[in-house]
Amino acid sequence: MKKSLLQILSFFMAALVMCSTMSFSVKSHYCGNILVDKAIMKPAKKCAMHKTSLQSKHTHQDQKDECCDDEVNLIEGQDQLKVQSYEFELPNPYFVEAFVYTFIFNTSFKALEKVNYSENPPPLLLRDFQVLYQVFLI
């Protein structure tokens, strides 16, 4: 379970890095003030008036198409990724050794006292179970 969760998380993080560094363009075609088509990473579809104006453009090359307008918005991703590396140095090896010995390996080397059970007698019986259950050794 933990391994599969780690793989899923690493896949989503790789996809996030890829999407944040990817550049793409949003192209839109306007006919007058009306948005006809908007497309991502491909050309936008032209309107019918634009097609007729292209056919008549061969006869009148000096006229400019006034009604249609194309817009291209370029969304740039992150160009440079910073690779961060942290250098870890131990401050003082004697301090680390003393810290580990004091707090992690804090064992006392005292001998445990032997508990003498002869001083504590067993509890007194309130009933004699052998006679009560009639169980006798032969």
Index terms:
4 helices; 138 residues; single chain; three-stranded antiparallel sheet; alpha+beta; elongated
How many beta strands in the DSSP annotation?
3
Q: Determine the number of helices (DSSP H or I, runs of at least 4 residues).
A: 4
Distance between the amino and carboxyl termini: 61 Å
Instruction: Tell me the Rg in angstroms.
Output: 43 Å
Mean pLDDT: 78
Largest sheet: 3 strands, antiparallel
Which strand order do you get reading across the main beta sheet? 2-1-3
Secondary-structure class: alpha+beta
Task: State the order of secondary-structure elements, H for helix, E for strand.
Answer: HEEHEHH
The coarse overall form would be elongated
Low-confidence stretches: none
Give the helix level as a range of percent: 25-40%
Strand content: 15-25%
Q: Your description of this structure?
A:
- The structure is a single chain.
- The protein has 138 residues and is of the alpha+beta class.
- 34% of the residues lie in helices and 17% in strands.
- Strands 2-1-3 form a 3-stranded antiparallel beta sheet, with no helix packed on it.
- The radius of gyration is 43 Å and the shape is elongated.
- 1% of the residues are buried.
